[in-house]
Design a protein that fits this description.
Chain A has eight helices and 13 strands. Chain A is an alpha+beta fold. The N and C termini of chain A lie far apart (54 Å). In chain B, helix 1 (10-23) packs parallel to helix 12 (221-237), helix 2 packs parallel to helix 16 (350-357) and helix 7 (117-126) runs parallel beside helix 8 (143-156). Classes of the chains: A alpha+beta, B alpha/beta.
Amino acid sequence: MIDYKTINLGHGSGGLMTRDLLDEIIFKTFSNPYLDKKHDGSVVKIEGEIAISTDSFVISPIFFKGGNIGELAVNGTVNDVAMCGAQPKYLSLAFIVEEGMKVDDFIKIVKSIKETADKSGVQIITGDTKVVERGKGDQIFINTTGFGPVNPKGYISADNIKVGDKIIVNGFIAQHGMAIMSQREGLEFESTIESDTTNLNFIANDLINEFELGIHLYRDATRGGLASVLTEIATDIKKGVSINENDLPLDKQVAAACEILGLDPLYVANEGVFLAIVDAEIAERVVKFMHNDEKGKYAVCIGEITEEHPNKVVMQSAIGGKRIVSPMIGEQLPRIC
Amino acid sequence: MKYLSEYRNLEATKGYLNLIARKVTRTWKVMEICGGQTHGLVRNGILDLLPPQVQMIHGPGCPVCVTPLNLIDKAIELLEIGVIVCSFGDMIRVPGSKKSLLEAKADGGDLRILYSPLEAVKIAKNNPEKEVVFFAVGFETTAPANALSVLHAQKEGITNYSILVSHVLVPPAMEAILDDEFCNIDAFLGAGHVCAIMGNEEYHPMSKKYSIPIIITGFEPLDLVQGIYMAVCQLEEGIHKVENQYSRVVKEEGNLAAKKVIQQVFEVGNREWRGIGEIPNSGYKVRKAFAAYDAETKFNIENIKVSESSICIAGEILRGIKKPKECPAFGKTCNPSNPLGAPMVSSEGACAAYYHFSNIEI
């Protein structure tokens, strides 16, 4: 029975209050054979190579249009593991909660984590909860680490990329960043833009099963947006990246919001967008294959790898000019006029 | 997007580029005044599509870039004495003499990034125990909203709100450029959004006095190439007058309601421009009647004075005498992560535009 309305320092003490919080909320929600042992950690068996990834989630506001910090914490790590060509199976889950957080909000987030984990087929097998004094956190920070077996049919690595490879994006860009921006204090604007947070592990795995070594690289375009991922790839492989402005999948409302705030959608964060760099010969089939999946309904080829302008991303502008897409420096800032 | 996609049309833009190429017979230097236009040109790759005889010179129309170092130091001083400082986003990374507003925030200052000064009034209302200052930067374009915030605060009886004003005016800056002994500008693309507020009236005598074509121009690719074409036509035909390319937004008399609000709160006075120096009657000051809302008098920070980096050639760039790539520090000791001058910071700054969008050979 939970008879308190807010989380306090006692809930992070390791004493009975902590036990109560864990039993009533965490263990009840995530119950599975690994977690139910209530041991210091969990022992699991996995065959073959495994991929592992960790991520911390700090976002304000914690509830936003289209999702909340809990969903992000699962999808973010699940997607990072999926981008390694692996199928995530297990997650660790650690909370840093600020004293004074509403228990109802905490429960809402925990439930949402459970639902999201179920959707992606991952189990929470270990975790931690700490409470910090008021003013030393922003309600709640979450860290998750995920891992799972690498699909042996594929080989995902930047080394595979060759000149002529096509760059495919699974759907509309800049949705998450603009959804958050529309709810920030001082920048609020009316819109129905929702975060695109979602799990990409099944579509990524299905593509490997179908096209095997034809899939050369996956990257998810989270913080820093598509531009940051593309500029990183160009420098990593020391080849050029060429994209077409006209091919970028951009929702009209998102485009308009970016226009008003003076933000470049290429640099705005996504939480359900990934790019696949694939052999030119299979590119068309990959796009068609993705169209049959809800997560790839709007997939489109946006460009290719080139011999020219090594280390640089060049975008063909809508009016036929060329511009460099440079790495983002700090956070994008709304402009004056 | 209706009213945007039409102005990003490939065929129409190409059509004007062809017309320009056919019309031009010699070298012409055309200055686009506004930083938004500079970015439009560079970001869409228009500079490379223009015939080589048409040379675009980038003007001083980036409000962030011309805000003097003193003002940034003053805003930082306010943060350090516990005032909530609200600012437009692009201002916060511009280096002051010791640090930027963003660094002052990391040191514990309460800095809020806003998109409208009216939000700052709301913050003042919700924090009656704190002083709240809005960093009112910009050309004539942002002046009405900033003036309105003062009127709004007055109407609501909010006394803990004031504005730190760095408003500059476009026409005096254009005259200062034309009066410069090194000036080599043949025509201007006037700043469309400034004229949407102020109208075109001030530009007719200037065009006449200096025998120079002035085309009030928008910001989309098609606007820009059409504006350039209109300028080239006048130059080739040996005429000079004010023409309005951006007539879907700009009226001859401007926005009368906005002008009235500006008049009520601000008066014209001398202003220092970063990199250029003081230009007479080139900015707005808060009228005496509203002194209670003028942060400079309210907090006694009028005497903060500092000098600029000696390496940065922002002044010559803002006056159109040099291009960013002629600066020895460009892309080397000066880059967006470590800017020496404001044009490298603002999304409308000429140096940032070159760095971000056309650094193929860096």
